[in-house]
Amino acid sequence: MGQISLKGIKKSFGAVDVLKGIDLEVGDGELVVFVGPSGCGKSTLLRMIAGLDQPTAGTIAINGTDVTPRSAADRGLAMVFQSYALYPHMSVRQNMAFGLQNTRMARAEIDARIADAARLLEIEPLLERRPGQLSGGQRQRVAIGRAIVRRPTAFLLDEPLSNLDAELRVSMRAELSALHARLGATMVHVTHDQVEAMTMADRIVVLRAGRIEQVDTPLNLYNRPANLFVAGFIGAPG
Ligand code: ADP
Ligand code: MG
Question: Is 91 exposed, middle or buried (0-12, 13-18, 19+ CB in 10 A)?
């Protein structure tokens, strides 16, 4: 189960109100994409869900339990970043094992999870390499693998494809969609790329200056944008 509920989420940095009251329900197994212009608060909102930062007001519940006071480690979510954030001095296998080593998990279980994820992502031949010996696409697969081995309640992906060249981005988009279908996991995916949002999302959340403008399926957003901003952003004739 990976149901996420946001109620009245606000975030201010000093005098700057970055999130101005966000209410959103993400269903179990749903792939929700946050879109919106640079600086509108997408990463900030994702960090609140992950527990990497605390909201100024509001509550975050996972499967009906209020997790707002809990740290990132106690929320059972996994975040994937644009920058991959792999440890350069460790092998791919060590990078994937790293997050599991403090959990008292048996070595055999860790190895089995790495083997499963490596098979799923087709990175088995890369397990003993270092990140510096990998292409951008391979590094992003490893970063996703590191999230998968944790068997998280939900995956939070912050512009995971934006460092890739255009061609690779299109193929990784399809890979991520296929992975979502196979894992059946809840995913919250942030992008500033409209095409990525339209092709991947079950529902799109359009953000503007810290507020939600509209939440709907790609088709409904395209056909019935709530206002000119949404129409302009999704690319339908306004
Ligand atoms: P997005 O991911 O949509 O591009 P962000 O969530 O990164 O936007 O940022 C939203 C706004 O919050 C920006 O104006 C940014 O400068 C500001 N911001 C984000 N993090 C901090 C921080 N730690 N301190 C101060 N301002 C921040
Ligand atoms: Mg961002």
Answer: middle
Q: Distance (Å, rounded) from C-alpha 148 to C-alpha 140?
A: 12
Per-residue pLDDT tens for 13-71? 999 999 999 999 999 999 999 999 999 999 999 999 999 999 999 999 999 999 999 99
What is the C-alpha to C-alpha distance for residues 31 and 201, in angstroms, rounded to an integer?
5
Any atom of ligand 1 within 6 Å of the Cβ of 13? yes
Residues with Cβ within 8 Å of residue 39, at least 6 apart in sequence: none
Amino acid at 165: D
Integer Cα distance of 213 and 230 in angstroms: 7
The per-residue pLDDT for range 172-201, each reduced to its tens digit, is: 899 899 999 999 999 999 998 889 999 999
Residue of 13, 158, 208 to test ligand 1 pocket, by largest number of atoms within 8 Å of CB: 13
Taking the C-alpha atoms of residue 32 and residue 203, their distance in angstroms, rounded to an integer, is 5
ipTM above 0.95, yes or no: yes
Which ligand is nearest the CA of 47, by number? Answer: 1
Query: Taking the model in full, what pTM does it have?
Result: 0.93
